[in-house]
C-alpha cells in the first residue's frame, strides 16, 4: 500500500478539497515552495501541476 501511495498523483483541485482550501491557495503554496509538485506540459494560462499523495501526507503529519 505504501508503494501505491508514493506513485499516486493528485491534482491541485483534489489537494484543495482534502485540505479544504481554494485551488489558488494550493497553487500559491506550490509556487512558494511550501508544497512540492510536478509541473506538466500545458497550453493554457495556468501551469498544470500534480502532487504526490505521499507529499500531501507528509504535510498533514507536521
Automatic annotation (TrEMBL):
Organism domain of life: Bacteria
Pfam families this protein is in?
HTH_17
The UniProt record lists the Helix-turn-helix domain at 9-60
Which Gene Ontology molecular function entries are recorded, alphabetically?
Answer: DNA binding
What the entry lists under InterPro entries is as follows: DNA-bd_dom_put_sf, HTH_17, SinI_DNA-bd
Which Gene3D superfamilies does the entry link to?
1.10.1660.10
Q: Which residues cross the membrane?
A: none
> What is the protein name for this chain?
Helix-turn-helix domain-containing protein
